């Protein structure tokens, strides 16, 4: 155990050192928020994949593999295919806009009020994304090192808050590359073969597990469709993902490297589901299936190597936590604070001091949320339900329907978000109804209010 802790401490120290180095490169707001819009294909692929593959993708997919078998990969598949979709269809127009946030598109198409309303939704989404992975960080450290949960949250989450605050996107990019490499080695090339070998190989899994564990649809078509409704479309409109797109040096890099990152996410999901299946064979009677990942690590790996895999898991979790945190602070500083001050614009080359303060304050908020919420997939579902239910319809309308109006966008965001919250309370976070009803009501209100409102005068720069 002492050797494992040493490996993790070295990893954490490296993350802080890279964050400090990133601070030296973050001299302008462009540097801090979008890495100077200058990432090449290798950095772009690594940071995009690391951003998507967080707590739910890693810990959650192993759990799904433990419970449902190989079909547990659909969560990662929906996220990965969303990355492919945004890379092929939206990266080019997004890079031309030279903006920082999703909500700036809504302001160009509608008005500042629509931007403010959507920014409130985006802020909640980004905070929950950060909290989700911070919870998973705490869970992993608690199980493997025997630390109290709150101590695990403050140590692991505190490292994320520290390096995110001091260096912004440059720190995130540098740490993401290391995290991407550690994730790939630790989970795909160490834990997967080790757990499968100890379980007796793939043939042993076939012999010992029910046939349903090898069906790609065992998890249920309703769940698969819901994953795509929430995660696939959520990728298209998530601030954490758009902010990574804005870092690409060129449209070609965003298209090709982004698509490669999406394909990697799908393969990563298959690997995590297979790890969960091996855990089911080796540890069939876990008291808490949420601990399947930590349990298989403890069971299958020797000291030192176990520390490497823990570092790999923490890498996956920290990359997404930091992405959510920076997305939240960017939304706050770029979209909400100027409205509170009655400001109308932001300088691309402004002082980054305000961004650092916002990142630190919201980092403390994320740690607070993580201390009171426990289920990573439920927390992620809440975030994406609010995002997709409240913003998908008005954002697509901004791009594709000239008849769309500001009043319709605001009504759709308000009714969609409220409907999502109501059905999450009534039917639970795991239900399919929140996303279906919120999209339906948001769409109906958007169309009806648009048709009843005066026809808008769309500027040449809109969408």
List the helices and strands and how they pair.
Elements: H1 2-25, H2 29-34, H3 41-52, H4 55-68, H5 74-89, H6 91-97, H7 103-109, H8 112-145, H9 149-199, H10 202-208, H11 221-237, H12 239-245, H13 251-282, H14 292-300, H15 305-340, H16 353-372, H17 376-400, H18 406-427, H19 433-452
Task: Give a verbal description of the structure.
The protein has one domain (2-374): Sodium/glucose cotransporter (Up-down Bundle). Helices cover 79% and strands 0% of the residues. It has 19 helices and no strands. Helix 9 crosses helix 15 and helix 17 runs antiparallel to helix 18 (406-427). The radius of gyration is 21 Å and the shape is globular. It is found in: Membrane.
Number of helices: 19
Counting DSSP E segments of at least 2 residues, the number of strands comes to: 0
What fraction, in percent, of the residue positions are helical? over 70%
The termini sit apart by 54 Å
Strand content: under 5%
What is the CATH top level name?
A: Mainly Alpha
- What is the name of the CATH architecture? Up-down Bundle
Mean pLDDT: 87
**Secondary-structure content class:** mainly alpha
CATH superfamily: Sodium/glucose cotransporter
GO molecular function: symporter activity
InterPro entries: Na/Glc_symporter_sf, Na/solute_symporter, Sodium:Solute_Symporter
Keywords: Membrane, Symport, Transmembrane, Transmembrane helix, Transport
Membrane topology: Multi-pass membrane protein
